[in-house]
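Progress against Task 2.4 (sequence-to-structure conversion) is shown through the following example record, which the project officer requested during the mid-term review.
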Amino acid sequence: MSNTPNRASNGSAGKPRKKEVTLDLTTARQMLPLVRSIVTDVQNARRAINRLVPEQERLERQRRDLVWQERQRRYQVIDEIAAAEKAWTTAVSELNNLGIALVDDEAGEVDFPTKVNGRTAAFSWLLGEEALRHWHYSDEESRRPIPADWDKAGAVTTTRYRGSQP
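Structure tokens generated for the chain above:
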């Protein structure tokens, strides 16, 4: 008998495998209204944090000289930052659960994972854009326009899940 605890044969050490998502263009476009809402939540939380942190730092530096109202505000700011950070974390988790990658929270840029010509790629979208119109390979930063024939031909790999789902 071994002194080593039994572990799952897949070597995951009890951690659930993260599902690998590959989306086709139609599915990614159908997801866009939900993703737009989540990215708006991410940006609102980021703005709140960016607005509150300097105030918190100022109040912290002056904490020994604060009058009662400023002391009260100091604690209120701490609570507001915690709430904004929780909202940010929740929104980012929602994107991750959908398989969507947050590229830049301040710009509101996200990537929808896909495959193009057998290579890992992503449809790229920025908050404020009306539709999903760009893509790039995963090793590239520049966004390319989505060719018109992809809408008709289905040139992009269909939706596929790996991991905990069949």
